[in-house]
Amino acid sequence: MVDALITPEDALAALGRPFLQHFRSAIDETRNDFAHFFATLPSDWHVDWSDRTLAGVIHDRLWSHVTHDVEALEANIVVTDNGTTRTICIDDSVGLRVKRHSMDGQISGYRTRGSRDFYMGTLAGLEVENLAIGYEWIPETRSIGRAVLSKQKSTGAEPIWVIGVGEIDDGILHVPYEPIIPPQPEFDFSGIVAASAKDAESS
């Protein structure tokens, strides 16, 4: 539940460098696939594609790249695809679902009980931390942004935390700790203060 959340640092450690490097490469390959996909279409088709349709195209390519030979990386990686949900489990302690993230870290999808339970880490009472891994979608350019990893409350809600997965340089994966903290609500107390001052003057 929410009172025992995995930290970004612990999440990166649990996933491990081989998987993170594999995932970052999968994002790059998917970005290339998506660019090729658009380049082969008539230009007047571009405006007719909805973001939801594009998300489906990207998801299938990313899932293909992420899961290709991923189980050979470590003996403790298990891929499950039952047609409606796709999950990668690492070491029986971290569950991952591939998701598109908005620029403020939110993910979209149907708010089912199964989805809620997955992101809250309550599936069958197992001690599994469930995370979303994927990419940021840049709506202005309709393009794939940076690779990200996040801890979510639910679909369509503010994330608990989001971090970027860094670039690969000379075969070395750089994973900077870049937390994206959801904005906190701002309250205007000026009216209350003014009313209190007025009451004090009249008393």
Structural features, described:
The protein is α+β, with helices and mostly antiparallel strands and 203 residues long. It has one domain. The protein has helices at residues 8-15, 17-39, 51-67, 113-120, 190-202; strands at 77-81, 86-90, 94-101, 129-138, 143-151, 161-164, 168-169, 172-173. Strands 1-2-3-4-5-6 form a six-stranded mixed beta sheet. Strand 7 and strand 8 (172-173) form a beta hairpin. The longest helix is centred in the N-terminal third of the chain and has 23 residues, at 17-39. The chain is globular and about 50 Å long.
Topology:
Layout (H helix, E strand, L loop, with lengths): L7 H8 L1 H23 L11 H17 L9 E5 L4 E5 L3 E8 L11 H8 L8 E10 L4 E9 L9 E4 L3 E2 L2 E2 L16 H13 L1
Parallel strand pairs: 3-4
Antiparallel strand pairs: 1-2, 2-3, 4-5, 5-6, 7-8
Parts with pLDDT < 50 across at least 5 consecutive residues: 183-189
How far is the N terminus from the C terminus?
A: 50 Å
Question: Which of globular, elongated, flat, extended, rod-shaped describes the shape?
Answer: globular
SSE run? HHHEEEHEEEEEH
The proportion of residues forming helix, as a percent range, comes to 25-40%
Beta content comes to 15-25%
SS-based structural class?
Answer: alpha+beta
CA gyration radius, whole angstroms:
21 Å
Structural domain count: 1
| Strand order in space, largest sheet | 1-2-3-4-5-6
Count every beta strand, where a strand is a DSSP E run of 2 or more residues: 8
The biggest beta sheet is recorded as: 6 strands, mixed
For the residues shown, what is the average pLDDT?
78
What's the total helix number?
5
